[in-house]
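I am still getting used to backbone structure tokens and would like to learn alongside you. Please make up or recall a protein chain and show it to me in full. Would you write everything just below, so we can both look at the same thing?
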Amino acid sequence: MSLTWKLTLQRTSLKNSSLIIFGILFFVSVVCFAIYPCGIEYFLIIRDVHFYGQSYDPEFCEVLVEKIYLFNKNCESKIEIFDCG
């Protein structure tokens, strides 16, 4: 086999390997998020708490408390519900 063909096959093999690895990682990520969606919800609530700490908007606080209540109801971990007053 000539050098050109060897290099072409190596490049193709590397591309295929990369696609397979990324495909597997994508599949594992989707499965993990489908099985345990509470992890994503937790980080979204923490982000919203941070935003609330900057604005202290009472309407946003009520929405956030409702999100926390639903999270505590559906998930194992618990987030303390705070007073919007």
In short: The chain has a mean pLDDT of 82.
